[in-house]
């Protein structure tokens, strides 16, 4: 723990103990491994197209801020949640960012979509992919500058639960990395735990709220499907729960992806060349679990770095009885 001194000159200064950090870092892989992406101009024989449908459950309050401050509530100022057509949603862009961050962390991928000041601390060989014909696996799946990815995620509307005013501690900007001599130690992930309370009002969905999500997957290999399943927290040996939205340091935003159905179009190339229309196959129950196991096994053997997955699963283990900090950390 660090110490913070407050007060004027001379006596009377108080030493405030900083709480343990609410996050840890996943180490960077030894290298980034770029390859030619699949693209969208043709379907490949052994690639699979389909759609994942399921439910997101809130394991702790969820706040994804709209950037709007509401003045007409029972408190003077409240940070409101994102809405679409008047209903609270988890934006597809937020879901995509959370899932992509896990894919990047457990594979030989670049460090993508960071602020300019963070970019200065990124090791040169991990900078964002810029050549659209030579991309790391995360950029191939989710997109890069000049390249549309093979995964699209819709906004997830709330299907059950209420929203309420929650009070969280004041949150501060993360610390700065001063120079390239102080490279980032890895990819940061916030841990789960018992939520902290404070004095800043935010609009949040209550624990137990559910959201309907749809992920469209286009022209990916079974191993890439397995990498996606793992990033959703469904690796058979290293399961974990993800975090999303604001106030993650104080243990908001813990979520669970329940996969309910997968529509699969196997041999999509042959289907387009065939006069007769072939129906899609829907995988549920044991079929879905078997498909996940097969794809995840291929991903484990070819795309997933086992040591990095182990680190991430330890950070994101759930449940976790740690107390999130309500003050400085």
Give the DSSP E fraction (strand runs of 2 or more residues). Answer: 25-35%
Secondary structure: helix percent: 10-25%
What would you report as the Rg, rounded to the nearest angstrom?
22 Å
Q: What is the overall number of helices?
A: 7
Largest sheet: 9 strands, antiparallel
Q: Name the shape in a single word.
A: globular
Uncertain regions spanning at least 5 consecutive residues: 4-12
Overall number of strands? 19
Number of domains: 1
Please report the distance between the alpha carbons of the first and last residues: 8 Å
Structural class: alpha+beta
What's the overall average pLDDT, rounded?
86
- In N-to-C order, the SSE pattern is EEEEEEEEHHHEEEEEEEEHEEHEHH
In brief, what are we looking at here?
With 329 residues, this protein is of the alpha+beta class.
Describe the model.
Strands 4, 7, 8, 11, 12, 16, 17, 18 and 19 form a nine-stranded antiparallel β-sheet that branches. A two-stranded antiparallel ribbon has the order 1-2. The termini are close together. It is an alpha+beta fold and 329 residues long. It has helices at 92-105, 116-119, 137-142, 222-231, 268-273, 285-302, 306-315; strands at 3-6, 14-17, 23-26, 48-58, 65-70, 78-81, 83-84, 87-90, 143-144, 147-148, 151-153, 156-160, 163-168, 187-190, 200-205, 210-220, 242-243, 254-266, 281-283. 38% of the residues are buried. It has one domain (36-172, 182-315). Mean pLDDT is 86; it is low at 4-12.
């Amino acid at each position: 723990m660090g110490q913070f001194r407050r007060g004027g000159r001379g006596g009377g200064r108080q030493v405030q103990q900083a709480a343990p950090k609410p996050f840890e870092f996943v180490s960077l892989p030894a290298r980034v491994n770029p390859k030619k992406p699949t693209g969208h101009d043709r379907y490949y024989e052994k690639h699979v197209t389909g759609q994942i449908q399921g439910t997101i459950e809130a394991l702790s309050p969820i706040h994804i801020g709209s950037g709007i401050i509401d003045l007409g509530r029972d408190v003077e100022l409240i940070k409101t949640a994102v809405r679409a057509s008047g209903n609270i949603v988890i934006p597809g862009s937020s879901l995509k960012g959370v899932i992509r961050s896990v894919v990047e962390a457990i594979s030989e991928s670049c460090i993508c979509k960071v602020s300019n000041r963070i970019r200065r601390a990124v090791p040169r060989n991990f900078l964002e992919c810029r050549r659209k014909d030579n991309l790391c696996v995360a950029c191939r799946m989710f997109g890069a500058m000049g390249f549309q990815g093979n995964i699209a995620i819709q906004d997830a509307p709330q299907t059950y639960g209420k929203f309420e005013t929650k009070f969280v501690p004041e949150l501060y900007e993360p610390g700065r990395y001063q120079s390239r001599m102080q490279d980032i130690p890895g990819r940061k992930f916030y841990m789960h735990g018992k939520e902290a309370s404070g004095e800043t009002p935010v609009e949040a969905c209550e624990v137990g709220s559910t959201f309907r999500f749809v992920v469209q997957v286009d022209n990916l290999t079974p191993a890439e499907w397995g990498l996606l399943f793992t990033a959703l927290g469904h690796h058979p040996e290293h399961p974990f729960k993800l975090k999303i939205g604001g106030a993650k340091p104080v243990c908001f935003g813990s979520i669970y992806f329940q996969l309910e159905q997968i529509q699969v179009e196997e041999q999509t190339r042959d289907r387009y060349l065939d006069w007769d229309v072939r129906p899609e196959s829907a995988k549920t129950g044991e079929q879905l679990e078997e498909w996940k196991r097969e794809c995840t096994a291929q991903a484990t053997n070819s795309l997933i770095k086992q040591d990095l997955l182990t680190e991430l699963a330890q950070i994101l283990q759930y449940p976790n009885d740690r107390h999130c900090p309500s003050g400085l950390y």
